[in-house]
Design brief:
Blueprint (H helix, E strand, L loop, with lengths): L25 H16 L4 E3 L9 E5 L5 E10 L5 E8 L2 E11 L1 E7 L5 E7 L1 H13 L10 H13 L31
Antiparallel strand pairs: 1-2, 2-3, 3-6, 4-5, 6-7
Length: 191
């Protein structure tokens, strides 16, 4: 497993909708393992593939020892309209947090890295993490969900962050090169 560089706010890959996974092979399992290692190292409660420069519908999560895993090609269902408000952050917007409204409960259907169907039921923090990561897969950042006044303040804080404007990381050798690397001609590439 290898810790991967996390793409920061402003990197176009974060605004590009991810492609569905169609091949469940050892490269995909390596990607999930690398993402899990990267998420834990950061540390974070979730990490979507676009955050490591891979345009596939894959995310990992870990909100507690009991609530951790990954989901591929997720589809969300919301059993109620009950909402929660609370601080939310993002590994691609490091060190900054703002209150964000999310739905309290979510049921996420998808696949594991072998292609087997799985369902994850989330409430509270797990629900927030799942919604946040699926937003990443759709090219949406959580700051897009903030009320207009908070969003304006958030963008000002981002502009003044010490990491703002840094050159996106360059991965010289990726274990996913040729298959998952953005810009490659292989399956799952994002142009």
């Amino acid at each position: 497993m290898t810790v991967q560089p996390i793409r920061l706010f402003g990197d176009p890959v974060l605004r590009t909708p991810a492609e569905p996974v169609t091949v469940f092979d050892k490269e995909l399992r390596r990607l999930v393992d690398d993402m899990t290692e990267t998420m834990i190292d950061a540390p974070g409660a979730g990490l979507a593939a676009p955050q490591v420069g891979v345009g596939l519908r894959v995310f990992t999560y870990r909100v507690s020892e009991e609530e951790q895993g990954h989901l591929i090609n997720p589809v969300l269902h919301f059993p109620s309209e009950e909402t929660q408000d609370g601080p939310e952050g993002c590994l691609s917007i490091p060190g900054l947090f703002w209150d964000c409204r999310r739905l309290e409960h979510v049921v996420a259907h998808g696949q594991n890295y072998y292609g087997d169907p799985i369902t994850v039921v989330g409430t509270a923090k797990l629900s927030r993490a799942i919604q946040h990561e699926v937003d990443h897969l759709d090219g949406v950042l959580f700051i897009d969900r903030l009320d207009p006044e908070t969003r304006k303040a958030a963008l000002a804080e981002i502009r003044n962050a010490e990491w703002a404007g840094l050159t996106p990381p360059v991965v010289k050798l990726s274990p996913h090169a040729g298959i998952f690397a953005p810009g490659s001609a292989g399956r799952g590439s994002t142009a």
